[in-house]
Amino acid sequence: MQKIVGIRFKPAGKVYYFDPQQIYLKVTDKVIVETARGVEFGEVASKVGYMEEGELKHPIKPVIRKATYRDEKTHLKNLEKAENALAICEEQIQKHQLNMKLINCEYTFDNSKVIFYFTADGRIDFRELVKDLAAIFKIRIELRQIGVRDEAKTLGGIGPCGCGLCCNKWMGDFQPVSIKMAKEQGLSLNPTKISGICGRLLCCLQFEQDCYEENLSELPSVGQKVKIQDGMASVVKLNPLMKKLTVKMDSDNHLYKEISVEDILEVKPKERNCPCKNKEAKLSKKELEELKHLENDKFSNKDDF
Fold this sequence. Notes:
The chain is of the alpha+beta class. The protein has helices at residues 69-96, 127-137, 148-155, 166-169, 179-184, 191-194, 204-207, 209-216, 285-295, and strands spanning 2-8, 15-18, 30-35, 38-44, 49-51, 63-66, 101-107, 113-119, 140-145, 225-228, 231-239, 244-249, 256-260, 266-267. The protein contains 9 helices and 14 strands.
């Protein structure tokens, strides 16, 4: 068993595991740790615990010490320096006429490197930009291209629900979101209605997915035949959260009924040409490509701690 403690380096950032050694740590303590990119300033995000060594992706690095008052002042000073560096880098980007959007900048705690994060539509040749920045700052320069989801997480904003972005407020890491989730939740496949301000699928689709999957497993599919007390009927609509469904009676095409799972006496096997299997057929090729694009995020922030 490996002794571990979770450390976070940014507000609502991903939690990374380190070896606390013999240091007594509690949540919200500030610490200095050794990372893959140098010495860093972080905050304890979880209690000290134990984990099987096989569950760890790679050997974990140690916590060096609890942060002192001087360490905290150094961290605040680095944040101020990062703001100035951001303005300087923006000027250099305009000078080189590069088609890139600068998002954020940060210094490592030991001032051994300054990292600039940016977004762009494709790959950017920034070799000359790096040379100029290195001449200005006199330290190692790293430019990192990130995805639009990482951009939204960094900058924050207001989501379609009217609340602050989950990724910026509390989500430590992104979870995979797919068009299939939107379909199973009965949402419109209109890209403007199921995408967030980042232009990708709403992260909240994933939050309720387990509940939908569990309830849908107990319901027949749209188009299937079911037997109820009044006779045979076809399922035309599902309400997974309430475990209810709307059926059209075979005896009267104009008669619709809302029933619960308990009202079903028998479910007939799916037919080959069941409408539930051809939902995507109603969409054009262009619309399908646009929906698939919502799932993709070509550039993503690496685990560099």
